[in-house]
Amino acid sequence: MEGLDKGKAIVEPVVADWRSLFSVVADQTLTYFLPKIDNGKAVIAPPKEIFEEREHVWRNAIVAQFVGKIPNFSAFQKMVNVLWGESGEVDIRPAGTNLFLIQFPNSETRDRVLESSPWHIQNKLIIIRKWELGLRSLEFNMAKLPIWVKLGNILLELFTQKGISYISSALGNPLYMDRFTAGQQRLAFAKVCIEIDAKVVIPKIIDVILRDGTIGQIYVDIPWMPLKCSYLEYWSW
After folding, report:
1. What is the pLDDT of residues 123-173, one digit of tens each?
2. How much of the chain is in helix, strand and coil states, percent to nearest 5?
């Protein structure tokens, strides 16, 4: 080319990918997956393994919410580890304005905390429930709350996962049993966490039709129950 010294190489300008302008580590990168189009609307249908990929990370977690004003977060974290951290550090992650995901080092500690509720942190009531795969929202619905219930006088034939599920369904949506009930280590009563609607009138006795057609009676005992606002039909304190 005219005007250029012979023997000198021509350096072409390098056009960089715009993404290289951002400093991103590998774990922060995302991938594009082609969505399905249904009636002109993009619909996402992740495969089953995507939902299950991180289940092991949260399987020992609970969801927690304070009733009323939230305490100082640092003090909250310190107190939780004093109360619940005998088996290892308890990790707390904010999940909303007044919502927390609390991760335990093992399921035994998590279950002990759940079964010993209600808890008060800095004199403030905190409501908790187990995190489960498929939980659509972490928010608590104050019209329905998880409440521990003792069910007494259960026939041994019904002292099973399905039998206790049937009985508990008379009160609401059965969530889970405590470890002593699940292991049949205590047969005097079953302790079950049930999501109970504030509109429901909780009976003291549940009638069960037995195999021979006679009626058996299950005794209902709720060690602690929140107050109920009958006008607005939600749980309160």
Report:
1. 777 888 888 776 666 666 667 778 889 999 999 999 999 999 999 999 998
2. 25, 30, 45
CA 235 centroid distance within chain? 19
Burial of residue 62 (CB within 10 Å: 0-12, 13-18, 19+) is buried
Q: In this structure, what token pair is assigned to residue 157?
A: 């034939």
7 has which bridge partners?
none
Which uninterrupted H or E stretch holds 193? strand 189-197
Q: Are 217 and 205 within 8 A, CB to CB?
A: yes
What does the alpha-carbon distance between residue 177 and residue 111 come to, in Å, rounded to a whole number? 10
Q: Are 165 and 174 in contact (CB under 8 A)?
A: yes
Strand stretches in 8-143, DSSP E: 36-38, 41-43, 61-66, 91-96, 99-103, 119-121, 124-130
The answer to whether residues 79 and 144 touch, using CB atoms and an 8 Å cutoff, is: no
Cα distance between residue 63 and residue 77, in whole Å: 14
**DSSP symbol at 49:** H
Which pTM was predicted?
A: 0.59
Instruction: Give the CA diameter of the chain.
Output: 109
CA distances from 198 to 36, 103, 212 (A): 40, 29, 34
Structure tokens at 103: 């991760």
Of 118, 213, 186, 159, which Cα lies nearest the Cα of 168?
159
Q: What whole-number distance in Å separates Cα of residue 181 and Cα of residue 188? A: 10
Q: Output Rg (C-alpha) for the chain, integer angstroms.
A: 27
Written as six digits, the tokens of 35 are 């969505």
